[in-house]
């Protein structure tokens, strides 16, 4: 059973936030506790919960996820009449015409830097308690979370404001680490804390573990040529192999990871716990935002007809033999399948659904980004909703932000790039052998190219918030796809928000903005 903590802080700790969802002991605090919060070791969970709570901001579709996905070939949000224009935000993300004043830039920058700040607060105040095994464990978890948020900031923006945890004079602007400095710092932190962290068997995948540290090291090293200018393929391979040799396993049932109320799965290395037993907001309701207005089901009566995927991306799939393309286990409850929704759509009772104008609701791949009919665009359902929920804007799906299949694919890519094509092919086929559609066989690859690896990452990890980083690493981020022309390679980095540059003289706007 997942447990949730509502933590109310004194206003002087407003930056730490008011809600977290980790499986740590519940500790409800009154606003008037003030200094007791940070001086009483009994409140230790109230200090470690907020940086864990910030992980949720990384899975909300309208912020971090949007930057990583709507800017790529995996997600397109066309304007439909007056719906989904939103000051041009979604069109600009897809066309890569954003500016430093785009609303998502500031929201994501603030959210991720808040995560760093929350982790620093935990490190600083927990470090003042009498030290024992528990305080050491929480400090190391907070150090990982700080490193993780720094990794995301660095990947998006190419520079990271930084304070040590004990630098609490906020009248002084933080220093700024450039991309290589930030990557090296993250690596140093992870290497130091990794042997001190617990395993998944001890604390589960909703807590930071040694496996999570190894997985993040693999990710940093895989992208190190972008961050630091040199290859680190062998290091990526080393840490992938460490994770693969640990307590994780590739799911033989791909869609088992994405059902409702799944608390654990052998794939999960680190996940964000969610629940629809409490009000959590609409940031991660993965069915509401993509389904057509007519596709209501059960207690879900508010759906928004928004994000779709591009035909460019869909056409890379083996639509017959790959289970990742389509699964129908939720149709009896919801009326639609998981995977890609194409063609005539039906209600739970089998009735053919219609658009609001009375035309058949047939999802088609044709899209006009600036002006599309209601049925334009292939929809995607990755996470299964709960039709009987009493809170339709809360998610019943724990979200993996690191899982073992990704690690196999990272190792395959690092092996290929370092000339070990046999090893790369073995890892790719290890995944493909477990992704057969019912009654079908997904062919194994005989030979392998970089393009094959990128495609496989798309098949396995679509809509999981990784696509932008992948396209950049493969040199494809500025290429054309449905409704997007070739763009400037400088778009690989997002602009620093104007508001951030204005308050920190150590920040320098990224080239091209």
Considering the chains and any ligands shown, give keywords for the structure.
mainly alpha, 18 helices, 513 residues, Serine Threonine Protein Phosphatase 5, Tetratricopeptide repeat, 11 strands, two-stranded antiparallel sheet
Low-confidence stretches: 1-33
CATH architecture of the domain at 5-196: Alpha Horseshoe
Strand order of the largest sheet: 6-7-10
- Name the shape in a single word: globular
CATH class of the domain at 5-196: Mainly Alpha
CATH topology of the domain at 5-196: Serine Threonine Protein Phosphatase 5, Tetratricopeptide repeat
Radius of gyration: 22 Å
Mean pLDDT score:
93
How is the main sheet built? 3 strands, antiparallel
**How much helicity do the residues have?**
25-40%
Would you tell me the structural class of the helices and strands?
mainly alpha
- Helix-strand topology string: EEHHHHHHEEHHHHHEHEHEEEEEHHHHH
> What's the total number of strands?
11
**How large is the count of helical segments?**
18
End-to-end separation: 47 Å
SSE layout:
Blueprint: E1 5-6, E2 19-20, H1 36-39, H2 44-54, H3 64-69, H4 89-95, H5 103-126, H6 133-157, E3 159-162, E4 175-178, H7 179-193, H8 200-203, H9 210-222, H10 224-228, H11 233-244, E5 268-272, H12 311-314, E6 326-327, H13 331-334, E7 338-341, E8 343-344, E9 362-363, E10 379-381, E11 399-403, H14 404-417, H15 421-432, H16 450-461, H17 467-473, H18 498-503
Antiparallel strand pairs: 1-2, 3-4, 5-11, 6-7, 7-10, 8-9
Describe this structure in words.
This protein is mainly alpha-helical and 513 residues long. The chain has a domain at 5-196: Alpha Horseshoe (Serine Threonine Protein Phosphatase 5, Tetratricopeptide repeat), CATH 1.25.40. The chain has helices at 36-39, 44-54, 64-69, 89-95, 103-126, 133-157, 179-193, 200-203, 210-222, 224-228, 233-244, 311-314, 331-334, 404-417, 421-432, 450-461, 467-473, 498-503; strands spanning 5-6, 19-20, 159-162, 175-178, 268-272, 326-327, 338-341, 343-344, 362-363, 379-381, 399-403. The strands form five sheets. It has a three-stranded antiparallel β-sheet with strand order 6-7-10, with no helix packed on it. Helix 5 (103-126) runs antiparallel to helix 6 and helix 6 packs antiparallel against helix 7 (179-193). The longest helix is centred in the first third of the chain and has 25 residues, at 133-157. The chain is globular and about 65 Å long. The protein starts with a strand and ends in a 10-residue tail after the last helix. The relative contact order is 0.14. Mean pLDDT is 93; it is low at 1-33.
């Amino acid at each position: 059973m997942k447990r949730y903590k509502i933590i109310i802080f004194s206003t002087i700790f407003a930056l730490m936030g008011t809600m977290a969802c980790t499986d740590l002991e519940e500790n409800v605090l009154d606003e008037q506790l003030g200094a007791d919060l940070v001086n009483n070791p009994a409140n230790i969970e109230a200090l470690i919960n907020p940086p864990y709570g910030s992980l949720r901001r990384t899975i909300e579709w309208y912020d971090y996820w949007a930057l990583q996905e709507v800017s790529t070939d995996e997600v397109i949000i066309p304007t439909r009449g007056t719906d989904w224009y939103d000051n041009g935000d979604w069109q600009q993300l897809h066309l890569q015409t954003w500016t430093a004043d785009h609303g998502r830039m500031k929201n994501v920058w603030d959210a991720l830097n808040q995560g760093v700040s929350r982790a620093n607060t935990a490190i600083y105040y927990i470090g003042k308690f009498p030290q024992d095994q528990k305080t050491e464990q929480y400090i190391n978890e907070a150090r990982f979370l700080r490193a993780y948020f720094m990794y995301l900031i660095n990947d998006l923006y190419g520079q990271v404001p930084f304070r040590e945890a004990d630098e609490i004079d906020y009248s002084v602007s933080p220093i700024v680490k450039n991309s290589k400095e930030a990557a090296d710092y993250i690596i140093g932190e992870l290497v130091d804390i990794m042997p001190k962290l617990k395993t998944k068997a001890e604390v589960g995948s909703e807590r930071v573990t040694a496996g999570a540290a190894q997985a993040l090291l693999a990710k940093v090293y895989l992208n190190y040529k972008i961050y630091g200018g040199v290859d680190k393929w062998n290091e990526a391979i080393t840490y992938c192999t460490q994770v693969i040799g640990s307590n994780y396993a590739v799911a033989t049932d791909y869609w088992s990871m994405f059902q409702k109320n799944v608390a654990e799965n052998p794939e999960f290395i680190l996940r964000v716990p969610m629940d629809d037993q409490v009000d959590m907001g609409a940031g991660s309701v993965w069915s509401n935002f993509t389904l057509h207005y007519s596709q209501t089901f059960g207690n879900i009566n508010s759906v928004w007809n928004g994000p779709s995927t591009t035909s460019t991306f869909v056409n890379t799939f083996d639509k017959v033999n790959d289970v990742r393309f389509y699964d129908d286990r939720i149709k009896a409850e919801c009326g639609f399948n998981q995977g890609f929704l194409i063609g005539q759509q039906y209600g739970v009772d089998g009735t053919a659904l219609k658009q609001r104008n009375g035309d058949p609701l047939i999802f088609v791949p044709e899209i006009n980004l600036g002006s599309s009919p209601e049925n334009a665009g292939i929809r995607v359902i990755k996470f299964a909703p709960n039709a009987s929920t009493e809170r339709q804007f809360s998610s019943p799906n724990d979200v993996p932000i690191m899982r073992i299949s990704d690690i196999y694919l990272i190792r395959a890519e690092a092996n290929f790039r370092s000339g070990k094509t046999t090893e790369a092919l073995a890892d790719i086929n290890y995944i493909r052998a477990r992704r057969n559609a019912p009654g079908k066989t997904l062919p194994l690859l005989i030979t392998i190219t970089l393009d094959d690896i990128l495609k496989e990452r798309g098949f396995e990890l679509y809509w999981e918030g990784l696509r932008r980083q992948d396209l950049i690493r493969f040199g494809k981020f500025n290429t054309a796809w449905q409704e997007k022309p070739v763009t400037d390679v400088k778009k690989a980095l997002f602009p620093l928000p104007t508001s951030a540059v204005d308050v920190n003289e150590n920040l320098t706007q990224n080239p091209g903005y």
